[in-house]
Amino acid sequence: MEFRIERRGEAEVWTIDGEDRRNAISMAMLRELGDHLARAAADRALRVVVLTGAGDKAFCAGADLKERARMSPDDVQTFHDGLRRALRAIEEAPQPFVAALNGAALGGGLELALACDLRIASDAAQLGLPEVSLGIIPGGGGTQRLARLIGVARAKDLVLTARRCGAAEALAMGLVSRLSPPQRLLADALDLAARLSRNAPVSLRQAKRAIDGGFHLPLEEALDLEHRLYQDCMRTKDRVEALRAFAEKRAPVFTGE
């Protein structure tokens, strides 16, 4: 098994279970990730997924280079197709994904984190896209997602130099949104997951879709998208429950309906 899956109330923790290979991405890992994503998409009781790596050295160090050395060109193409599909599935998942970066997030590992909705990093984490130093470029969306997240100039600084940045710099440039001491990382990520889980599931999904789907549209089109997604929320039982709970001075009980 490539992942350890733990249910924590309305959240799940998906731990890449490959500490001996720095939690690198293998073909088997991509296949299993795809299976978990399909299961999560159909699980209405699952509100949030926390994605992290085993151990304290690496969240994910990118592609498994030992496996890559044995691949044919067709195998490499299959690998990249699978990686791109998996990362898009994370972005399109109904649940928010929180990447808990417990160590190095490099190459495809950083691309995996970039596909998540939120990123919280250990103080000791190192992040980078070293591909140009290996004769390639980021091939799992790194050039595109990074530039959209932190801006073109900062993205070029990281991609074209192939350098790593520390957690404090990553926070300052907006690459991660929170830092945590290594011993507190998972607990803080689960606290964040619990905060997300308290919100209405349909609203979380629609808000995620509004931000991601509208970001690159002209403003009027983006506002129209937001309005359509807002109207979807208006028709839910959870909206009525929120109003009732407010009037009754209690916490709402959301069902995702």
Topology, pairings included?
Layout: E1 3-8, E2 11-16, H1 27-41, E3 48-53, E4 58-60, H2 65-68, H3 73-92, E5 97-101, E6 104-106, H4 108-115, E7 118-122, E8 126-128, H5 142-150, H6 152-161, E9 164-166, H7 167-173, E10 178-180, H8 185-197, H9 201-214, H10 219-234, H11 237-247
Parallel strand pairs: 2-3, 3-5, 4-6, 5-7, 6-8, 7-10
Antiparallel strand pairs: 1-2, 8-9
Helix pairs in contact: 1-3, 3-4, 4-5, 5-6, 9-10
Describe the structure in your own words:
The longest helix is centred in the N-terminal third of the chain and has 20 residues, at 73-92. The strands form two sheets. Strands 1-2-3-5-7-10 form a six-stranded mixed beta sheet, with helices on both faces. A four-stranded mixed beta sheet has the order 4-6-8-9. The mean pLDDT is 95. It has helices at 27-41, 65-68, 73-92, 108-115, 142-150, 152-161, 167-173, 185-197, 201-214, 219-234, 237-247, and strands at 3-8, 11-16, 48-53, 58-60, 97-101, 104-106, 118-122, 126-128, 164-166, 178-180. 49% of the residues lie in helices and 17% in strands. The protein is an alpha/beta fold and 257 residues long. It has two domains: 3-197, 2-enoyl-CoA Hydratase, Chain A, domain 1 (Alpha-Beta Complex), CATH 3.90.226; 201-247, Lyase 2-enoyl-coa Hydratase, Chain  A, domain 2 (Orthogonal Bundle), CATH 1.10.12.10. The chain is built from eleven helices and ten strands. Helix 1 packs parallel to helix 3 (73-92) and helix 5 crosses helix 6 (152-161).
